[in-house]
Amino acid sequence: MRSIAVLMTGAVLAAATACGGVHSPGATVQGDHPRALRIGLAYDIGGRGDKSFNDAAADGLDDARRSLGLLQVQEVAAQPGEPESAKVNRLRLMAQAGYSPIIAVGYAYSDAVKEVAPKFPGTKFAIVDDSVASGPNVTNLLFAEEQGSFLVGAAAAMKSKTGDIGFVGGVESPLIKKFEAGYTQGVKYVNPRAKIEIAYLTKPPDLTGFDNAPKAQDAAQKMFAAGADVVYQAAGASGAGVFKAAKSAKGWAIGVDSDQARTADPSVRGLILTSMVKRVDVAVYDYIANLMDGTVKSGRAVYDLKLGGVDYSTTGGHIDDIQPRLEQLKQEIIIGKIRVSAG
User: Fold this and answer.
1) Checking DSSP bridges between strand 4-5 and strand 28-29, what pairing results, if any?
2) Of 21, 205, 314, 343, which one's alpha carbon is 20 to 30 angstroms from that of 331?
3) What InterPro entries does the entry give (predicted)?
């Protein structure tokens, strides 16, 4: 099997760039594969390199590229403050260029998928974190974020010395409310008297809360100054600001989506207590593999604790002493003894 650099037509590349697209410099052609695909991946704000949500999707794409053999990959990313029309154009351009499947990373693409997918019935679409966009050619890749957040909330309560615990959400949306809900339940399950401080950086339609590290740092600093000693962030690339605040306050931070004790800036990794790992990489890989096998289905595919879709990380050894208890709670959620509400 031979590999050569991906060649895109100048018109498609220029159009993608004009609406916020970023072509992946590492994409390759593996043209000898008998079932090779042309895959389009549309990232949320922050794109590849956010060390969180988008990077998890990129990892799934990279795994598929290495092991399954893909014809061509086009990667594009949303830009802060862009109009909804930019997302529509981004997906439409990839569909017109023959990319199928097109994978939209994040609920911000819901309206765009609803508009574009019906116009291209022969194109397969998948969207992460959204169940509203639907159709015979749309697969919804969903997660039980509340279950994983319950476990890191329990960890926060076990490790807190002050009983004062914080949560910073990027955008006050139904999705991020699931993280907050599970986290709050986990904290209260362990310590019913714990104080929980909650802050959101923006509200829809302003999605810049996922890409504003200074604002996140300010929100977390206020929590630490008020007595919090553990702060969980569900804020995408903004989470880097929470890590900086934890470092300054000599407190703990909890990462999200990826094992951020491995992916965050090395200067802050030591203060990341744990991360709520959301296996977007597994969902993206599975979707591509199922498409190649002819087994992909439209509609909802939910990744929960039982399926390994969410979990907590142990990098750094900071929760080794409480891990047996966390594993017990995990199993009780899986078997239904503990029921975690999504909101």
Assistant:
1) antiparallel
2) 343
3) BMP_lipoprotein, Peripla_BP_I, PnrA-like
Alpha-carbon gap, residue 117 to 124, rounded angstroms: 8
* CATH code where residue 95 lies: 3.40.50.2300
Q: Which domain holds residue 26?
A: 4-143+280-303
Answer yes or no: do 256 and 299 share one domain.
Answer: no
Mean pLDDT in residue range 147-168 = 98
Both tokens of residue 320?
């080794």
Q: Is residue 267 classed exposed, middle or buried when 0-12, 13-18 and 19+ CB atoms within 10 A define those classes? A: exposed
72 pairs with which residues across the strands? 38
Residue 302's DSSP bridge partners are: 142
Catalogue the E-assigned strands of 136-251.
138-143, 164-171, 195-202, 230-234
Give the tens place of pLDDT for each residue, 280-306.
999 999 999 999 999 999 999 999 999
What is the phi/psi pair of residue 264, to 5°?
-70, 170
- The pLDDT, as a whole number, for residue 283 is 96
3-state secondary structure 184-199: HHHHHHHCCCCEEEEE
Residue 101 maps to a domain = yes
Please state, as a whole number, how many other Cβ atoms lie within 10 Å of the Cβ of residue 80: 14
Q: Are residues 155 and 228 in the same domain?
A: yes
Asked, for residue 339, whether it belongs to a domain, the answer is: no
CB neighbour class for 277 (10 Å; exposed up to 12, middle 13-18, buried from 19): buried
